[in-house]
Design brief:
Strand order of the largest sheet: 1-2-5
Distance between the termini: 95 Å
Subcellular location: Cell membrane; Membrane
Region (Disordered): 774-799
Strand content: under 5%
Domain NADH-Ubiquinone oxidoreductase (complex I) chain 5 N-terminal: 72-116
Shape: elongated
Largest sheet: 3 strands, mixed
Structural class: mainly alpha
Domain NADH:quinone oxidoreductase/Mrp antiporter transmembrane: 133-416
Oligomer: single chain
Radius of gyration: 36 Å
Main location: membrane
């Protein structure tokens, strides 16, 4: 594998994000005509990427110069283009050009068209990043960015509850899958020894032979299946139809929903061709294919019909990649290319019909062929490609698919039946969209007419490309799709595409069977639409309802858990906090047998024993104190004992500081409490006292044992030697402790002072507010508050 470097790749990636910043201003100045100007951005990216076709077709990989991101974690911003990423990037930028133009016409006059176009460019840049990312973390970054930008686009009409729900649903499902993917990518990098995809793809069986392979595969599949709407995660894609039609056209043809398929194709050389891979993917893909096509025939909304056919097509692609058969994967490559063209065109056509005829309900439309002839013929061409009928690119794709799955073993037979039935229903759905609104008696909610140039440009271009790809089959095969198939299979692939490439064989016979089946289903579509059944509802609507149940249940559980752990009782908060601290300190030492050796009792002078005794007396004084004032003063004894220890061990400056801090602390706490109450301490049940005492002992034991473990270890003098050597040289100070606090940790000390100051101000505000409430409750006798023995009842009697 030879590498070529192109810094233009980084600029091409930055262009959509720059356009996102400019789009609102362009819309404000140029109106809907801004679309013509803004469309130059994806068009320029498309032209730039076309410059890589020759190099990639020759077997080379184009890379950008890596940019350091988090070098200490081997994370860098790196991009690369091979056959797989090049075709995806060309589809994203090429169809993106058509969609930007289409958006200018579809949202003409919309007050927030500038915001919409900005979101579209963010979405475009995110998807481009996914398919050209080399570093795994770069890939994940863009992966999640597609989820966020799709959330903004799906929820564009945010005033409607259905739009907000659909956007949230897409974000939750795809975002959750993204977290699974992150774990899978990290595992891959650890096992493969690299964060770069271009290096992992040459690692052979390293990932497949590792014991963590199953975990890696399941985590990656979690990300791919949620993104590409595989059963049972398909429901979010159906509900995403709440987005404006330009979003649907882009989402379903070249962007987000194809990201999961891209990921499966990308990792196939290192994770595919195993029993687990060839079991999970065909089953999930097959179920998604049949469920999606059947549900598409039951819809009257043309957008929903197309949405379910996208679900089905994604299932077909997953099934084919899951076979790990070179011919079947080549068929998947062909079908993915064809699908991007005809599905983008069909969604734009449905949007144009809705825009110009006033509805996308197939039961309210008819006879539009006379008033919308260009749209009609574009729909026919797209439907022919979707149905796999000659002379469109979809024909070759279907032939290659059948050639790849035909076999005499049980699995091949089941797969063949599944794909034939699924393709038959796809054909029926394609002609429901392409024929039903245009033939028959003319009817529409409003007087229909052909759409303006901005609306028909995209459908016409994409529908013609489905034919031109066959007409210039040699370029399509050798310049685009063969390198793409090579990247997925890891083997040399030779494709034959052209108007004269028709083989009279079993795949052609299966194609004829598919056409007959599809025509029959098309004629019976009304019957299928009216069919009822629990199983049908469960497959189509069950996961959607489960999502609502799951979210509502999660909210209820969260509310109850919050009430449990945030009940408003400070004693409970402190008990839980210190229990966790004790468990954190003691559990590792006990589990890993790291308890320290019990030290021998040192020989101490009488005055050292006196200091220790003073600390113990202070401790018991706190425990037996009958008033808060006594407890506060006794608390200071502990600090004074520590200060004496500092003094005895030759640190008079620390000792002086400790004396001052303890004195001020006692005074300040006493003053604060005087604003509240210094009366007798609150009584506690004996059971609570035992529990609190247990927690206190455990925390104390935990810290004590931890300190003993630390002091029993070998002493590392590196830090001490550093401060000893440089305190005077750098900071010009002889007192090392002071130099550390003031110079080496100057900002840290400043931060600590700021924290103490903020805490003090908060306490002051709290005590003032509390004191005011007390005075309000007690009347004019508030001046007696804080005197020992002056209870609220006594004050009330005086008044």
């Amino acid at each position: 594998m030879a590498f070529e470097f192109s810094d233009g790749l980084n600029w091409a990636m930055a262009a959509p994000f720059a356009a996102a910043l400019v789009a609102p201003f362009a819309k404000r100045m140029l109106g809907h005509n801004a679309a013509w100007l803004l469309a130059l951005v994806p068009a320029a990216i498309f032209v730039h990427l076309c410059g890589f076709i020759e190099a990639v077709a020759a077997g080379n990989v184009v890379r950008s110069t890596p940019l350091a991101w988090l070098p200490q974690y081997n994370i860098q911003y790196s991009l690369f283009v091979d056959g797989l990423s090049l075709v995806f990037a060309l589809l994203i930028s090429g169809i993106g050009t058509c969609v930007i133009l289409y958006s200018g016409g579809y949202l003409k006059g919309h007050p927030e068209q500038g915001r919409f176009l900005s979101f579209m460019f963010l979405f475009m840049g995110s998807m481009l990043g996914v398919v050209v990312a080399d570093n795994l973390i770069t890939l994940f970054f863009y992966w999640e960015l597609t989820s966020i930008t799709s959330f903004l686009l799906i929820g564009f009409n945010h005033r409607y509850e259905a739009s907000r729900r659909a956007a949230l649903q897409a974000l939750v499902v795809t975002g959750g899958g993204g977290l699974a993917l992150l774990a899978g990518l990290i595992l891959m990098s650890q096992v493969g020894g690299s964060m770069e995809l271009s290096q992992l793809l040459t690692s052979g069986d390293v990932l497949r032979d590792n014991p963590a392979y199953t975990a890696m595969l399941l985590l990656v599949l979690g990300g791919a299946f949620t993104k590409s709407a595989q059963f049972p995660f398909h429901f979010w894609l159906r509900n995403a139809m709440e987005a404006p039609t330009p979003v649907s056209a882009y989402l379903h043809s070249a962007t987000m929903v194809k990201a999961g398929v891209y990921l499966l194709m990308r990792v196939h050389p290192v994770l595919g061709d195993t029993t687990l891979w060839m079991t999970i993917l065909p089953i999930v893909g097959g179920v998604t294919l049949i469920m999606g096509t059947w549900m598409s025939l039951r819809q009257t909304d043309l957008k929903l019909t197309l949405a379910y056919t996208t679900v089905a097509s994604l299932g077909l692609l997953v099934l084919l990649v899951g076979t790990s058969n070179q011919t079947a994967i080549t068929g998947a490559v062909l079908y993915l290319f064809a699908h991007a063209l005809f599905k983008g065109g069909l969604f734009m056509i449905v949007g144009t019909v809705d825009h110009e005829a006033g509805s996308r309900d197939v039961t309210q439309l008819g006879g539009l062929r006379k008033v919308m002839p260009i749209t009609f013929y574009a729909a026919i061409l797209c439907a022919l490609s979707m149905s796999g009928i000659y002379p469109m690119i979809g024909f070759i794709a279907k032939e290659e698919i059948y050639a790849g799955i035909i076999g005499t073993d049980f699995q091949s037979v089941i797969l063949t039946i599944t794909v034939v039935v699924g393709n038959g229903m796809l054909l029926a759905a394609a002609f429901v969209v392409a024929l039903k609104p245009f033939l028959g008696e003319e009817k529409a909610p409003k007087k229909a007419h052909e759409g303006p140039v901005l609306l028909i440009f995209g459908p016409v271009v994409l529908s013609l490309l489905g034919f031109l790809a066959m007409l210039f089959g040699s370029f399509t095969a050798h310049g685009l799709l063969s390198p793409m198939a090579n990247a997925v299979t890891g083997q040399e692939t030779h494709l034959a595409i052209g108007l004269g490439v028709v083989h009279f064989n079993l795949p052609l016979l299966l194609s004829l069977v598919t056409v007959v089946l599809g025509v029959g289903l098309f004629l019976k579509v009304e019957t299928i639409r009216n069919t009822k059944g629990t199983f049908i509802r469960m497959m189509g609507e069950g996961p959607d309802r489960f999502f609502d149940t799951f979210i509502s249940g999660l909210i209820r559980v969260s509310a109850r858990f919050t009430r449990l752990v945030q009940g408003g009782n400070l004693e409970v908060y402190l008990a839980v906090t210190f229990t966790i601290v004790a468990a954190t300190l003691l559990t590792p030492m006990i589990l890993f047998d790291e308890l320290p050796d019990w030290p021998s009792i040192p020989s101490m002078h009488f005055y050292e024993w006196a200091v220790l005794g003073l600390a113990v007396v202070g401790l018991f004084a706190i425990l037996v104190a009958r008033s808060r004032l006594t407890a506060i003063i006794s608390l200071g004894i502990q600090g004074f004992s520590v200060a004496l220890i500092f003094l005895l061990f030759g640190a008079p400056d620390l000792s002086f500081t400790q004396f001052m801090v303890e004195t001020l602390s006692v005074v300040i706490i006493a003053l604060v409490m005087s604003r509240l109450s210094l009366a007798e301490r609150d009584g506690r049940p004996k059971l609570q006292m035992v529990g609190d005492a247990t927690i206190a002992v455990l925390v104390g034991a935990g810290f004590g044992l931890l300190l003993m473990s630390v002091t029993q270890g070998a002493f590392d003098r590196h830090v001490s030697d550093f401060f000893t050597s440089y305190s005077r040289v750098i900071a010009h100070g002889r007192n090392i402790v002071n130099v550390i606090i003031v110079d080496f940790r100057g900002l840290d000390t400043l931060g600590e002072i700021a924290v103490v100051m903020i805490a003090g101000l908060s306490v002051l505000t709290l005590t003032r507010g509390t004191a005011k409430r007390f005075r309000s409750a007690d009347g004019d006798g508030g001046e007696t508050r804080g005197l020992p023995g002056a209870s609220r009842g006594e004050k009330g009697t005086e008044q």
